[in-house]
Amino acid sequence: MANCIFTLIGGMAGNWKVLSMVSVAGAPLEKVPRIAVLEGDCPLPMTGAQWRLRGVTSYERYVTRAERNLLTAVQPGLGRAEATCAALIPIRKSARWWELPQDERRALFETRSGHIRMGLEYLPAVARRLYHSRDLGEPFDFLTWFEYAPSHEMAFDELVAKLRRSEEWNYVEREIDIRLVRDDGAPTAPLV
Amino acid sequence: MANCIFTLIGGMAGNWKVLSMVSVAGAPLEKVPRIAVLEGDCPLPMTGAQWRLRGVTSYERYVTRAERNLLTAVQPGLGRAEATCAALIPIRKSARWWELPQDERRALFETRSGHIRMGLEYLPAVARRLYHSRDLGEPFDFLTWFEYAPSHEMAFDELVAKLRRSEEWNYVEREIDIRLVRDDGAPTAPLV
Asked: What is the dihedral of CA A147, A151, A154, A156, to 10 degrees?
C-alpha cells in the first residue's frame, strides 16, 4: 500500500461511534463519543474534538515473502458491509524495543510471539490496517485498526488476549483499547 | 539513537558551504551556496532559502545484532574536528523497492549488495548519520549524511561508487550528491 497519511479525530463527529475506551497500559486518552478517520494530514477541529492521532500506511517492517503470500490469500479489505464493528488500538513500545536490532525485533515479533501466525488464524474474519506513527513524533508508535462482523467479536477478543500474553507485549508501554460501531448517520457538522 | 526530527535548509545560511551538487538520478534539487542542519521541525525561512528537507533519526531497519556490534566498535560520531568535509546524499527508492517484503529488502541490501560490510571497510574514516524521511511524506526517502577528513575524500568517493554499482541501487530512482565543507564563520542572519 502506498504511503498515505491519515488523521483520526476523537470528538463529537465521525462515522464510528465509541462503545468503550479502556487504558490497557500507560496514560489514558480522553474519552470521546465518536471517531472520524480522515485521509490526509488534518488539523484538530477548533470545536467538537478532543484529540487527533496521525499515522501513515507504510511499507512492511517484518513480514517475509512467504508470510505475505499467506496473508494476501485470505486477508479482507476494510469497509465490508457486514463488518460493522471496529477496534482502534493505539500502541507505544518502549525505548528498549526500538534499541533492539532488526533481527532481534523480528525474532520477538514472530519467532517467539507468533504475531503473524496468530493473526492468520483469525482471517478472513478480521480486517486489519496498520498506521505507522513513530517517525511522525506522535504519542503512539502505531495505530492498529480492525474491522469485523458482530458475530466475530469474541474471536477478535481472543486474538487480542493472546497477543497481550506474548513476549512481544513486554515491550508495550502504552495501549488504549477503543471499541467502535459503524454509524453512518453520524453528525459531521462539528468537524470544522 | 532517539527519534529526533531534523530540518536541512538549502540557502544562503548555515555552517556547511556547498562545493558541488550533482543530480545522480531523477529530478535535480535547486543549487544553493550553503546548507544549515537544524534540530527540530523548522519552517522554510521567508528569505534566503530555496528548499527544506526533513528527516528523523530512527530505529534501524536492517542491521542485525552481529552487524551492530561490528559497527559500534569502530564508527565515529559526527562533529570530529578533523572531519571538515561532508556529503549530503538524499535518496528516493522506487515503489518496486517498498513493495518488497522485509526479507527480500534485507537480502538485496546486505546479502547481495553488501551495504553494511562495504561501509565497514571505510570506518572509522567516514562518520555517518541516516535521516528517515519516507513516513513524513518528504520528496526523498532518506537523507544520508557523511563526515570525513579531506585526506579521506578519495576513500569516500570509492565507497559511494561501489554502492552505486550494487544491485540495491537498481531501486534508487532519485539521488543528489551534495559535497560540503565546514565553514563555521558562515552568515546566519538570513535564516529568519
From this structure: -20
* pTM (2 d.p.): 0.93
Q: Which amino acid type is present at position A17?
A: K
**CA of B186 vs chain A CAs: smallest distance (Å):** 31
Contacts of B101 in chain A (CB under 8 A): 60, 63-65, 67-68
CB contact set of B16 (below 8 Å; sequence gap of 6+): B34, B35, B36, B37, B86, B88, B180, B181, B182, B183, B186
Residue A184, min C-alpha distance to chain B (Å): 30
Residue B138, C-beta contacts closer than 8 angstroms, at least 6 positions apart: B53, B54, B55
> Angle B134-B136-B140 (CA atoms, 0-180°, nearest 5)?
40
- Identify all chain A residues contacting B141, using CB atoms and an 8 Å cutoff: none
Where b means 16+ CB within 10 Å and e means fewer, B150-184 reads eebeeebeebbebbeebebbebbbbbbbbbbebee
CB contact under 8 A, B61 and A61: yes
Beta bridge partners of A147: A86, A127
Measured distance CA(A172)–CA(A32) in Å, rounded: 23
A25 φ/ψ angles, rounded to the nearest 5 degrees: -155, 145
Q: Are A191 and A49 in contact (CB under 8 A)?
A: yes
User: Could you give the ipTM of this predicted complex?
Assistant: 0.91
With an 8 Å Cβ cutoff, are B61 and A62 in contact? no
CB A118 within 8 A of CB A159: yes
* pLDDT tens digit sequence for B94-135: 999 999 999 999 999 999 999 999 999 999 999 999 999 999
CB of B48 closer than 8 Å to CB of B125: no
As given in the structure block, the three cell numbers for residue A24 are: 490497557
Q: To probe the interface with A, which of B4, B54, B56, B59 has the most A CB atoms within 10 Å?
A: B59
| Total H helices, total E strands in chain B | 5, 8
Set of cell numbers at residue B13? 545560511
